Hints:
The chain is mainly β. It is built from 1 helix and 74 strands. It has a 16-stranded mixed sheet that branches. A 5-stranded mixed sheet has the order 22-28-27-24-25, with no helix packed on it. A hairpin with a 2-residue loop joins β19 (about 275-285) and β20 (about 290-305). The protein is elongated and about 165 Å long. It starts with 5 loop residues before the first strand and ends with a strand.
Amino acid sequence: MRKNWLLILWLLPLLPVTAFAVSGGELCYKYLGPGVKPNTAKYEVSLYMSANCKSAKRGDRYPGAAYFVFWDPTPGSGPIFTETTKLDSVVSLNYTPENKCISYRESYCFSTGRIRAVVELPIIEGDYIVTSSLLSYVNTPGDNLIYSYRPDIDNLMPLMHTEAVYTTIIPGTKKMGNQYNSSPLYNYPQQVVVCGNTSFSYDFSQKDPDADKIIYEMCDVEVTDSSQVAFPVKPPYMPVFKKDPLYDPEHQMGENVTLDKNTGILSGVGLETGVFMINICVSEYRNGKLINQHQRNQLFFITPCLQAQAQLPKEYIKCKDFTFNFQNQFVSTMPVAYHWDFGVPGKTDDTSALEKPVFTFPDTGIYKIKLVISGLGDNSECHDTATSSVRVYPGFKPGFIFKQACASVPVEFTDTTKTKYGTINSWNWDFGDYFNEINDTSTLQNPIYQYSSRGDYLVNYIVGKYLYGISCADQCIDTVKARVSLLDILLLKLSNDTLICAADSIQIFANSIGKITWEPNYHISNPHSFSPWVNPDVDTRYVAHVDAGPGCAADDSVLIRSLKSVQISLPQRQMDICVADTAHLFAFSNGANAYQWAGNNIVSPKDSADIFAHPLSNAWYFITATLGSCRATDSMQVRIFDYPNIRVYGDTTMCAGKAISIHVRGNADRYTWTPATQVSDVNSLDPVIAPLISTAFHVEATDTTGCTKPVDKRVIINVIHKFKANAGNDTTITAGQSLQLNAGGAINYVWTPAAGLSDPNISNPKAVLNTDMEYYVKVSDDEGCTEYDSLHVRVLKTGYDILVPNAFTPNGDGLNDIFRPIPVGIKEFYSFEIYDRWGKIVFRSTESNKGWDGRVNAQPAQTGTYVWIVKGMTVDNKLIEKHGAVVLLR
Length: 890
């Protein structure tokens, strides 16, 4: 039965203890060879502990002795103890910076102690898990110390009655076979003071004597509870990292500080201040298998300080253009001035004082650049310099293609990367097979990969190159991505159907994989090629049969039409256009795919079936149409004609109500007048017009041949309205009453009939009537313009009065729709008012000729009886005031 044994390095107290603050530690081992006893192996197990030099009350204190304990991980099993080992050595480091570009507020002292033990372990199939606690046993009475972490560590939970614990694994034969392992080893001691809010870099890397692959990860700190658990304590142990918005086990100094899993370099920008424990899990891999994992931790002091440094990458490389963006890689907190020299030979203006300059190099090549920083103010003694190489070799164009296939067939990838300088030397493919994430990569230039199943896969291709023998694959690289879609069926894409001349050949293409056979085997260069040439003399449909393996086949076809001769035709042999116009010429063909025109002033591309030309005189145009070797030609003439020449004349001023003639003359074939409704004959040369208002009359002249575009001329006729005849309003008088008429507004007046008038040829005659009369007045001026109006006089045989109807019907039929008073012999009309049955006024007027239309607030009033009141003054100065009722009917 296989057993796993657990070895614990435990520092055991026997007397009362005092605290010793641990700032870091690690447990590791070294294989020394076979043991003395059969089937055993000899190992040196070492415990390293770091602390502040002033941690202990009596100077530097480390465990004087320790026990090693092996655990059998079988449930219920107990530990196995070995002999006591003693403190081996202590190394101290005082860190007081002399760099003028860094200013600490205080100096620090650190030391590291080591305890070693040589043990012989039985060779077993399972793993030995070795752990240690920093709890001390010292031979001198009263000299016992508890080794725990200091209580003011910002990213750990409060530590009460706890002891620091370290672990490692010694792998057994199941992992190692007949091999043995020595764990990686850290370099002690190192600087652990960092300036706040400043970039830093700290090396956690370890050297592995067996050249195993090492991976570094941040992981949780573990401790034991010395107040609750009796010695010895079997793992697992208690994690104590604090969960905080600023830090957690994966971001132990904040999100801006990261650990490179391959190099072990911890770098970034720390917080402003604080004390932080960084705990690293170091994993060893041999032949792809995890064989060991142990922890290494170190206390970091982040303190306020000013720091500056010039730091540049080892090399800059540009593979696409000549322009670079530069900046200091170190984030300085000390105010500094910058001086950049970009190293262009023979140039003195290739410098910059900017913090982040942009510089364009004049040519390809290698340039040596230099950055000098200088402290400002109180830090003027700070100076630092960094140099780097800039390699300018544009023209790097990465790419790749692949042939799509069924999921059951491997996919062939082909690198298409091009470079103007250097040699492509690095190909890294990630085929994106999420069903096989471990083995879906390749470093071949043109790999073939078999996917696990159908689906969509995102391929990432990272390609790099050498430049004149200098490797830059880590910088002069680019990434190309493409999506591979694998189906259960084979994808096959052929050339498009096409037309060729019977005397020609054409190459057809099939995009797929596998083996191909074309049918029919007729006028084809190779029926088993993916790109054969064909020259059929008749229309032929070629069918492609593609087979890429069992269950992966596809068929498709392409039609090649064969034309024995090209024919061309023009819609017309002769085109007539007007002067300065553009001619649109076009031709038809039975299959030509190329055209070429020749002639004067062609203003559009000549290689089209239709063109535009702007000839200045009569011209001939020639066209050639081709399809491969087949050719046809034709021609046509364009003739130039003038526009019709016309003129319009006639009177342009007329009196309203009259009719006149307007005239047009010219060489056109046809004339058309508008507006047509006011012209006697729209096609006449001399139409008669009688507009009521001033009007613009247009005549459009056109020719039926030659220049057929119309010519438009306009004549504006001004209609004179100098006056308007007004005989006055209709009125009512009593028999024998004198009535004063008044027309006005003109020069000449004629009233008809003359009966009852004092003078029919003046503007204001008096009329005395005994019967009703309709008078007409004609008014005119000296230019002959006339106007007419009329007046109806009603004669009553009664005395002076205001007559009012007793009913009206406002129904919109034009009869009795308005209710109004009729004044007889009234010289002044005062008012006319109408009330509803509730005494509310619904209409009022001071003009006798205005009446009520039966509406209230624009809405029809209700039928029924309404009360009216009317007032006026007669010609003999008598007041008339009457009232009554009227019935509204509908």
